[in-house]
Amino acid sequence: MKYILVTGGVISGIGKGIIASSIGTILKSCGLRVTAIKIDPYINIDAGTFSPYEHGEVFVLNDGGEVDLDLGNYERFLDISLYKDNNITTGKIYQHVINKERHGDYLGKTVQVVPHITDAVQEWVMNQAKVPVDDDRKEPQICVIELGGTIGDIEGMPFVEAFRQFQFKAKRENFCNIHVSLVPQPNATGEQKTKPTQNSVRALRGLGLSPDLIVCRSAKPIEMAVKEKISMFCHVEPEQVIFIHDVSSTYRVPILLEEQGIIKYFKQRLNLPIDDQPSDLLMKWKKMADRYERLLKVCSIALVGKYTKLSDCYASVFKALEHSALAINHKLDLMYIDSTELEHSTEVENSVKYHQAWHKLCKADGILVPGGFGIRGTEGKLQAISWARTKKKPFLGVCLGMQLAVVEFARNCLNWKDANSTEFDPDTKNPVVIDMPEHNPGDMGGTMRLGKRRTVFKTQNSVLRKLYGDETFVEERHRHRYEVNPELTHCFEEKGLKFVGHDTEGNRMEIIELENHPYFVGVQFHPEFSSRPMKPSPPYLGLLLAATGTLNAYLQRGCKLSPSDSYSDLSDDSSPEKEFPNSETS
């Protein structure tokens, strides 16, 4: 097993996750089996109880793990399925060690950070690195480990010490450290500054780790003189300094790394049995990046949510939309709309925001209402759903978005004016959405219906079934505590809102579709978690197809969204006209 540790300096949020994912992609393109581990130094057991503003979205894995959004980057880039133990937190490590102490495993010894915590980290990494993550179920050969935060953080010290020891346990030819640092360029002078990187590398060396590669992040391409300066002051060869500037899309990052000779370096440094040239997989990434930058046609989607001030809150949703837009040769114009601003207010300031929000919604080609929790902003989401239904705008509701679509239909089509979810009104006379008590035992963490579950299609006549390739069932990831009330579904179906997908027992409503509408779909699961750059998620693809007026032509072609179809489509430079010759308006 070869281990690649990615650390960060100067600031957090510098792009370590994308760098780690890109390195994994490059090594996978060389024919190696790659896995990834993310270490988060916070004391929370997992990311499940975070506010999205605190740490971005909560990414859900097949096994129900609620983890850091960087694991989503790993899965999308590497096309693998990770597990909750691929996300290590301080809370998990301490809980593990304390449980062992309570069981008497340390034989009365004083339990300390060194060696017990550091040993637990090393043991966890070595065990998890061996777990297969590809479809072939073979043991990985490379493990990319990202250490969250920045070097010098007090929370990260035990982990840095663990890897200081681990580099000797694993041996030099099996362990490599990549340090990602910032090269700022102040507007006052316009000069690219290397001092932050020098200080960061010095701090890393002071803790016992010496970087093999220094990846310098910057807004603009870095000059050669800066590279030579970093090489000289940071005690590495010039070829060990890699530059990654801000690019138009993250698909370009693996290409930038490969162009700077990273494959040759890894081959020599880790003694890898690979060729100097990558396989066709990286060439497909290059074609995809080139196509992304050449796109001319634009499709606008309005995302109506409550966490719109930080794009990371809907990272997977954005990526799923982007994958689908790229597959049909369109550039995505994603408009974030705060749902509270769609609710009418008499205040002057809010009134301006109200009109601006509605202007965005009205000009969008399609509308998406994603998952969420809490009552704030729900009335605005209901207004957006009503607009999509009555004006026949393509609509996709995910999790809470689907539940609110049912509430809106009950109020405006069934005339149940007080219809609501028991999450927002426990005493409603028409509880069209109810809680699942077996998934809510009291604690906050990990108590929802989580992870990959099967959804069975109940009818042949379903748009989503066709988009999924006419499968009898699909398996997607869930994260919810409330569900549509199954006792009331017959009332909706009589009026045209069909529940076309159920769980295996037939008790839980998973998919809704509205008759006589271009595309009005709601799903209880979160299909965005399974979307890949070369395998777009079918519900999101359907939304983009409907928003561009090409859904009917696509369905008539009988396109089956198999991996081979998606890969060949994305590696082809065909134009939208070629791909959808019978384009029409919805």
Based on secondary structure, the structural category is alpha/beta
Supply the CATH architecture of the largest domain: 3-Layer(aba) Sandwich
Number of helices: 21
Shape: globular
What's the total number of strands? 21
Strand content: 15-25%
- As for the number of domains, it is 2
Tell me about the largest β-sheet.
9 strands, mixed
Query: Radius of gyration, Cα only, in angstroms?
Result: 25 Å
At the first level of CATH, the class of the largest domain is Alpha Beta
Low-pLDDT runs: 560-586
Q: What portion of residues is helical?
A: 25-40%
Distance between the termini: 53 Å
What secondary-structure arrangement, pairings included, does this model have?
Layout (H helix, E strand, L loop, with lengths): L1 E7 L7 H14 L4 E7 L11 H4 L3 E2 L5 E2 L2 H9 L8 E3 H13 L10 H17 L12 E6 L9 H14 L4 E8 L12 H12 L6 E6 L5 H10 L7 E5 L7 H7 L2 H8 L10 H15 L3 E8 L9 H13 L3 E8 L9 H16 L2 E4 L8 H13 L4 E4 L1 H13 L7 E2 L9 E5 L13 E9 L5 H5 L5 E8 L1 E3 L4 H6 L2 E6 L6 E6 L5 E4 L14 H10 L3 H6 L6 H8 L5 H4 L7
Parallel strand pairs: 1-6, 1-7, 2-5, 2-6, 7-8, 8-9, 10-11, 10-12, 12-13, 13-21, 14-15
Antiparallel strand pairs: 3-4, 15-18, 16-17, 16-19, 19-20, 20-21
Helix pairs in contact: 1-3, 1-9, 4-5, 5-6, 12-18, 14-15
Q: What's this model, at a glance?
A:
With about 575 residues, the chain is of the alpha/beta class. It folds into 2 domains: about 1-35 and about 115-120 and about 130-290, Rossmann fold (3-Layer(aba) Sandwich); about 295-435 and about 450-580, Class I glutamine amidotransferase (GATase) domain (Rossmann fold).
